[in-house]
């Protein structure tokens, strides 16, 4: 701005009262600061009286467009140093502890593991860093669960991620109606059936889900029908896949399990048979929860024709079951008694681990293993690859399986 015509305080007062003597042009911030300094020098601001200083400050504020407070700050800097310089911000706002690379890593982790809960994702990061030496997970291994959910809501994360049938009641007197009592020992499994949809009146495959109550060791199989001739051989194969002896078998009251052939199989294997009690909805809650978080998450709800049951069963045996037991963390309850003497359960993050490591952590764990099996042998399978590698391997196999089904069955999964 050009105010060279104003050289005295009287002219400044006339300008402020409405005289239009100078042309005002917009300047950059640096130019404005320099103009303020030159004006203070020209009028010898430091030698002026109080009233004259007030007039000059009004003049500076009017022409520069700055507030009176900002002009006062600039004058204070002029008093101290004789200069007026722009102070640049020394920081870029809040520092980011978790980088975009960490967020992309979290998005990839959720993608290959199917977006597990926050605690499970944190546990996988800890295992990747501490167990498998993947250094890129160092910061995610120390993240809090609440902030992990914050990262999942971030733009960077979002930019990187683009009916169980009711069984009919049965009056067959097979199995005992009571809740299993494992007493902290593995080998008491819960079992349930998940149907893979109907299409044009044709039934889909049936998934058989079995879960150990103490370790949450889970073995999944598949059959084309839930008749005794198909189900009994599969149950025997599922039981044989557990690394420990099976002592108890608990199901709901569906006729696919409560029948003579299943009872004779369990009796032959010296396995106790129990079934859900009346009006006790939580008796089989563990396996029913796994139906949603495992079976439906991996296979969805769409119809899969029965003729693909064998291929799905092979996929479960070779890929899904090893991933669930060696690489997927689970919550485990901790029982405590409150002040009123009521027994309650909590699920602390510190108790989260994989079913296999839960098995290894049991008292006298080796005594529960099948004859001829050792933890050294199981370690070779459990730690042959990292959690991420196992998830990627499983996802590739699942993609190949579903591609083969969809190419032959356009209306199916």
The fraction of residues assigned to DSSP E strands is 5-15%
Taking all Cα atoms into account, the compactness measure Rg is 36 Å
Compressed to H and E, one letter per element, the order equals: HHHHHHHHEEEEEEHEHEHHEEHHH
What's the structural domain tally? 3
Described by the principal axes of the CA atoms, the overall outline is elongated
Major sheet: arrangement of strands: 1-8-7-2-5-6
Q: Count the strands? A: 10
Explain what the structure shows.
The protein contains 15 helices and ten strands. With 413 residues, the chain is α/β, with parallel strands linked by helices. The protein folds into three domains: 9-81, no CATH class; 100-158, no CATH class; 191-244 and 283-408, no CATH class. α1 (9-16) packs across α3 (50-64), α3 (50-64) crosses α4 and α12 (309-326) packs antiparallel against α15. The longest helix is centred in the C-terminal third of the chain and has 22 residues, at 387-408. The chain starts with 8 loop residues before the first helix and ends in a 5-residue tail after the last helix. The model has no long low-confidence stretch (mean pLDDT 87).
Question: What is the gist of this entry?
Answer:
The protein contains 15 helices and ten strands. With 413 residues, it is of the alpha/beta class. The chain folds into three domains: 9-81, no CATH class; 100-158, no CATH class; 191-244 and 283-408, no CATH class.
């Amino acid at each position: 701005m050009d105010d060279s015509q104003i050289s005295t305080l009287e002219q400044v007062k006339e300008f402020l009262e409405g005289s239009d003597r100078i042309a005002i042009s917009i300047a950059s911030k640096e130019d404005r600061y320099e103009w303020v300094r030159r004006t203070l020098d020209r009028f010898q601001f430091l030698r002026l009286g109080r009233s004259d200083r007030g007039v000059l400050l009004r003049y500076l504020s009017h022409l520069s467009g700055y507030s009176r407070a900002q002009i006062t700050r600039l004058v204070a800097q002029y008093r101290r140093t004789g200069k007026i310089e722009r102070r640049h911000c020394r920081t870029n706002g809040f520092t980011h502890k978790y980088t975009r690379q960490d967020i992309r890593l979290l998005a990839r982790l959720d993608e290959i593991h199917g977006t597990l809960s926050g605690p499970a994702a944190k546990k996988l990061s800890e295992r990747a860093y501490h167990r498998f030496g993947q250094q890129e997970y160092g910061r995610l291994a120390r993240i809090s669960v609440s902030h992990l959910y914050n990262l999942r809501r971030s733009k960077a994360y979002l930019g990187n991620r683009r009916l169980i049938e009711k069984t009919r009641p049965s009056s067959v007197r097979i199995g005992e109606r009571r809740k299993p009592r494992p007493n902290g020992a593995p080998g008491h499994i819960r079992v349930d059936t998940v149907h893979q949809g109907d299409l044009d009146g044709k039934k889909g495959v049936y998934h058989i889900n079995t879960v150990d109550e103490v370790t949450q060791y889970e073995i999944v199989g598949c059959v084309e029908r839930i008749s005794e001739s198909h189900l009994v051989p599969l149950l025997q194969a599922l039981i044989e896949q557990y690394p420990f002896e099976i002592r108890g078998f608990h199901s709901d009251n569906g006729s696919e399990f409560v029948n003579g052939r299943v009872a004779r199989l369990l009796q032959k294997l010296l396995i106790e048979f129990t079934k859900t009690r009346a009006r006790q909805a939580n008796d089989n809650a563990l396996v029913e929860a796994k139906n949603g978080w495992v079976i439906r998450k991996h296979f969805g709800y769409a119809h899969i024709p029965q003729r693909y049951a064998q291929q799905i069963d092979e996929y479960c045996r070779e890929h899904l079951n090893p991933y669930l037991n060696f690489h997927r963390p689970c919550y485990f309850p901790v029982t405590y008694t409150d002040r009123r003497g009521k027994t309650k359960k909590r699920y602390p993050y510190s108790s989260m681990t994989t079913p296999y490591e839960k098995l290894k952590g049991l008292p006298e764990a080796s005594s529960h293993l099948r004859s001829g099996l050792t933890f050294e042998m199981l370690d070779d399978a459990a730690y042959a690859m990292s959690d991420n590698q196992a998830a990627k391997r499983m996802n590739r196999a699942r993609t190949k399986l579903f591609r083969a089904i969809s190419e032959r069955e356009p209306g199916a999964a």
